[in-house]
Amino acid sequence: MIEARGLSKHYGAKVAVDDISFSIRPGQVTGFLGPNGAGKSTSMRLMVGLDRPTSGTVTIDGQRYRDLAAPLAEVGTLLDAKGVHPGRSARSHLRTLAATHGISDRRVSEVLEQTGLSSVAHKRVGGFSLGMGQRLGIAAAILGDPRVLILDEPINGLDPDGVLWVRQFLRHLASEGRTVLLSSHLMSEMAQTADHVIVLGRGRVVADAPIGEFISQGRGETVTVRTPEAAKLASLLLSGASPNVTLEPLTDEGFTTQGLAAAEIGGIAARNGIELHELSPVQASLEDAYIALTRDQLDYTSN
Ligand SMILES: Nc1ncnc2c1ncn2[C@@H]1O[C@H](COP(=O)(O)OP(=O)(O)OP(=O)(O)O)[C@@H](O)[C@H]1O
């Protein structure tokens, strides 16, 4: 569990994180979202003691990061995949980390295997592709078998196989009861990986909800309707409807509606003898919900 209480970080006059509170629970993948400059990286840095809060606290399983006796064994982090000595091999990089915590060579081999790096373990990290570097970053994060993982953009630069691997791997780690927090700009990927989302905007929490709830609260149900009597059905749907109901014409004999359930539209059409050629609810996407929520949250003030 990662808990932030009244957490703030100011850089001079700039408020990067503004009095935020949240709990990131074990057993699920939590996605950290927000426009550029919203405060995600700063929050993650505060979680792992790379920065000190201006006020408030953030704890990992009840303790501040800097009070943890064996950090690698409690929190795995991927905050900057490039922070590795380029002349070292993957194995020697992991061995160096392992040595600080008395972690065995066997465990190093195990994580190289788990992250698909065994065959390149002896190669210089400097020659690694971005994707291999990300895998090495994840290998380092899980080296100490931590209960909590904090990963900033872990799928950046990965090919589709790599993305799928990270998704399945993170889901597996969460299913073992670990706390998994990741940030990503790729909405479709986040939608398939996260169980819960926390959205930041201008340093504040603007949403904290299970992903299904977050998506459905976006703009209400969208339905595509096609009928040769589009104008008649449209006026029937709008008469007496709440102001939240909107209609957008389609080019060919139809429209999309927002704020009405498909069953309501079908019922009104049937009662009025209107022939329907299509009545299909459109699956809302995480991206739609996210864009609707953050439209006003862009950090225009960043410099
Ligand atoms: N060391 C710093 N000094 C001054 N301002 C900073 C510093 N670090 C971050 N900021 C500012 O704080 C705000 C939040 O930045 P942060 O990097 O946490 O956002 P983010 O949500 O991670 O953005 P991105 O998606 O672009 O990585 C931004 O306006 C940024 O310019």
UniProtKB/TrEMBL annotation:
The keyword Electron transport does not apply. Residues 2-227 form the ABC transporter domain. GO terms for molecular function: ATP binding; ATP hydrolysis activity. It comes from Leucobacter insecticola. This is ABC transporter ATP-binding protein. The keyword ATP-binding applies. Keywords: ATP-binding, Nucleotide-binding, Transport. Belongs to the ABC transporter superfamily. Transmembrane segments: none annotated. Signal peptide: none annotated. It holds the Pfam family ABC_tran. InterPro entries: AAA+_ATPase, ABC_transporter-like_ATP-bd, P-loop_NTPase. Coiled coil: none annotated.
